[in-house]
Design brief:
272 residues, alpha/beta, Nucleotidyltransferase, domain 5, two-stranded antiparallel sheet, 12 helices, 7 strands, 14% strand, Ribonucl_H, RNaseH_sf
Length: 272
């Protein structure tokens, strides 16, 4: 674990948010981008406390397989050096202590780092610790919400200098943390994790931005068969009940939203 005092101070000084609980900013490097088949080779974490103190974790991980040449070229991490690193199960307990009680932040976190981390933990019989209601800030999504570019380009635009050590996990964590603070300042975002998460939802009911409520309270679909038409759930119920039944059966993470709205309309899911 190669964190320096200077790096820790940089993280602590760069974040300007009012935290109600710890914020865990993290980044993973891996053998590839497939959550099911690829494996973590490095973890970088910064845990920032509400009082401003920061603690960092920087660890190479033995993936128990070779690292593709393109990944070696991108990250500078070689198969040979990882043969001396511990496997994930040997550091999992200590690593997970950084996530305890914390909200999460990272760059492209929702699409890549978080699903990969959860998959890797599942493979060794572990899982993220509470809280269940943690907020997840994806700096990439935030930048797309405002302006879309890679982490290196975003960092350079905000700071005027190149991001040193890009694609090295803790360097990316430091860059992500500084970009987060600059975004809050430049775009007038709320100064709390909860406030940012609420604003980023933009009225959507789920993180994948598939359902939202319109001004009249109707639930509208922004995906699938009727996504481009923004059909309401009421319209689908009346005109395409088979499709609604399919959604209730197959889309687990939206079922609760569907059933809540059906109850508002005087129906039960079993009646559809």
């Amino acid at each position: 674990m190669s964190t320096t005092t200077k790096q820790t101070e940089t993280i602590a000084d760069s974040l300007d948010l009012r935290l109600s609980r710890p914020l865990c900013v993290f980044d993973l490097e891996a053998t590839g981008t497939d959550v099911d088949t690829d494996r973590i080779i490095q973890v970088g974490i910064a845990r920032i406390e509400p009082g401003g103190q920061a603690d960092t974790f920087d660890q190479k991980i033995d993936p128990k397989r070779s690292v593709p040449s393109e990944v070696e070229a991108l990250t500078g991490i070689t198969t040979q050096e990882l043969t001396f690193a511990p496997p994930l199960e040997d550091v999992a307990d200590y690593m997970l202590s950084y996530f305890e009680g914390a909200d999460l932040a990272g760059y492209n976190l929702k699409s890549y780092d978080l699903p990969l981390l959860e998959a890797e933990l599942g493979r060794i019989g572990a899982e993220l610790p509470p809280p269940e209601d943690r907020e997840v800030l994806d700096i990439y999504e935030m930048e797309k919400y405002c302006r879309s570019l890679s982490l290196e380009a975003v960092y350079e635009r905000y700071t005027g200098v190149e991001l040193e050590g890009a694609h090295e996990a803790l360097a990316d964590v430091i860059g992500t943390t500084e970009v987060l603070s600059r975004q809050v300042e430049e775009f007038g975002l709320p100064g709390t994790v909860e406030g940012i998460a609420e604003e980023m939802s933009d009225g959507y009911l789920d993180e994948k931005r598939r359902l939202y409520r319109d001004e009249d309270g109707a639930m509208r679909l922004d995906f699938g068969k009727f996504g481009d038409q923004n059909r309401s759930l009421e319209w689908v119920l009346k005109n395409e009940p088979d499709y609604l039944r399919w959604m209730l059966e197959e889309i687990d993470d939206l079922r609760g939203h569907f059933t809540d709205r059906l109850e508002e309309l005087g129906y039960k899911a079993a009646d559809v």
